[in-house]
Amino acid sequence: MSYIVLARKYRPRSFAELVGQAHVVQALSNALTQQRLHHAYLFTGTRGVGKTTVSRILAKSLNCVGADGLGGITATPCGVCSACRDIDAGRHVDYVELDAASNRGVDEISQLLDQAVYKPVVGRFKVYMIDEVHMLSTTAFNAMLKTLEEPPEYLKFVLATTDPQKVPVTVLSRCLQFNLRPMATETVFEHLQTVLNAESVPFEDPALRLLARGARGSMRDALSLTDQAIAYAGGHLGEAAVRQMLGAVDRGHGVRIVEALAASDGVALVRTVDELRAQGLSAAGTLEELADLAQQMAVLQAVPQAIDPTHPDAAVLQGLAPLLPADETQLLYSIALHGRAELALAPDEYSGLVMVLLRMLAFRPAGGAAASAVRPAAAAPIVAAAPVPAPAVAASRELLRTSGAVSKTTVPSVAQAPSAPPVRPEPPRASPTPMAAPVAAPMAAPTAISVSEPAPPLRPAAAPAAAAETPPWDDEPPWVREESESSDGARPTARNESQPPSPEVVDAPQAADIPAPHPAQARWLATVQQLLAQTKVTGLVRELAWQAECTGIDDAADPVCWQLRVERESLRQASHRERLQAAMSELLGQPQRLEIDVGAVTDSAARRDVAARSQAQAQAERVIRNDPVVQQLLARYPSARIVPGSVRPR
Ligand SMILES: [Zn+2]
Fold this sequence. Notes:
Elements: H1 6-9, H2 22-33, E1 40-44, H3 51-63, H4 82-89, E2 95-99, H5 106-115, E3 126-131, H6 138-149, E4 155-161, H7 169-172, E5 176-179, H8 185-199, H9 205-214, H10 219-233, H11 239-246, H12 251-262, H13 266-278, H14 283-302, H15 314-320, H16 326-342, H17 349-362, H18 369-373, H19 382-385, H20 390-403, H21 410-415, H22 437-444, H23 447-450, H24 462-468, H25 478-488, H26 492-498, H27 503-506, H28 519-533, H29 539-547, E6 549-554, E7 560-566, H30 574-588, E8 592-598, H31 605-626, H32 628-636
Parallel strand pairs: 1-4, 1-5, 2-3, 3-4, 7-8
Antiparallel strand pairs: 6-7
Helix pairs in contact: 3-4, 5-6, 8-9, 9-10, 9-11, 12-13, 12-14, 13-17, 14-16, 14-17, 16-17, 20-24, 20-31, 29-30
Zinc ion is lined by residues 64, 66, 77-79, 81, 83-84.
InterPro entries: AAA+_ATPase, DNA_pol3_clamp-load_cplx_C, DNA_pol_III_gamma-3, DNA_pol_III_sug/sutau_N, DNA_pol_III_tau_dom-5, DNA_Rep/Repair_Clamp_Loader, HLD_clamp_pol_III_gamma_tau, P-loop_NTPase
Function: DNA polymerase III is a complex, multichain enzyme responsible for most of the replicative synthesis in bacteria. This DNA polymerase also exhibits 3' to 5' exonuclease activity.
Domain AAA+ ATPase: 37-199
């Protein structure tokens, strides 16, 4: 016996077998049992959702005579009488399927309607099924209208279309319309399990999930893909084989991309794309995978218990969900979707993918240089900008000076993204579940910080006093003060070596890459702080001061010459330089001259601000994490967790 493809072999033969369209089944079943039948039905929905199948079952229900030949109209056709068998086999004389895509002219419709005057040959009803009805020409529609409005009582019309917008209103108004929905991935997955068990084909669940997802809501596509996969994999449906066949992206790549984004690790992102290219995996598939991951992460962030623990990706998703705050997850989802649409416009697929991933990195709503540029308060010293508890401030200053406290990849990405959202969106709300609430609430409340026991500061005696009494030189930027302090006493490195390594320094997550400023840079940074504090410069001139690094000062020259460096050519315009020069001359009481070149900037007021913020953030998170009350709550409620992004330094 010849092989019958799965989609045909497992075409549902009764309403009970039809999956995923319960609303249509119920309406039709009720109409059939109550004998309240409309004369024309219109089924809409994308390909492969069951329009033709429903039509055939309806035709059988109307014409079935039962196994004993005595039955009437029924919602449960027997499947064994000659009418049922003939309709299933597509050879019933009174059931006519017309494909309007290939018979769209008025002649074909006229021929069909000419036959309508004759009573059914063997059955109770003639059923005319016109598929893709929107393809009919206008004259063909017009020819049909009269019969469609008042057909003989033995004639039923079933119209099907994937595009109801193109069906004339005059036709729509004469039909009872049913919308067949695309199948949920889970529904397709379960159906594939049933089919493969019936076929005795061994399979792996993740492989079926891939096929179900690849079918995009179409059961026929799912079964066709499964047929193809069985042939491809040689009988055993393994995940690896199906992945290869679909060109689907290994979940691991998607996970690595999310992790790299969470860590702001541009290097890892680019490396992952290289791997994808090497394996010939599609960029569109990667973005689809990312959108899928982001969607599931978002669900998990909002409703932690929503995930089915038996889901094959449950563990992975539970690990990923806390990595990004809810707002960034939304952003990731949105960029992945839009990026996929513009892949076709990119010079090549992979450069398009790189750009989309880098955009995710660039648009991460972190308080970067661009953000502080529009908020004058951000230019103030750390004490004002991020008032964390005093020991924390002291510790963060210490760290800022000794370790830089910001990773290499964070800084360039933030600095190169001038169009990034300037103000960080609101942090995600605490999870609405009762289990998470007890922890989320005290964590967000400022009292949580006041009852906390701060981590031991590096200089227990001096630090709180320094922050508390607000010394007169508090206008100076902290790094300037640190510089002057350390020049009085021992060098910072010497002092650190004399102490046991502090846990604060050891577990600081960021790499050290902003060292203490050299003397010229320290003077420059102090000048910038004064300029900004006195609001002497605005707009792009302010941005120039904020982003520039000083590479040297020639005090011997007349006027004094400052060598500055910026990363963006656009900041180097002569007009900006002249205005900054004028502001500095006024501030310092004598003429100053600026020379600006373009190059890599490793130290600037903007970078120090970013470093200080991320340090304050890390410190605040550490304080919350070490807080005894929070720890008690976490221990008491197993599903409680600290909502990522909800901790903010005071
Ligand atoms: Zn029957």
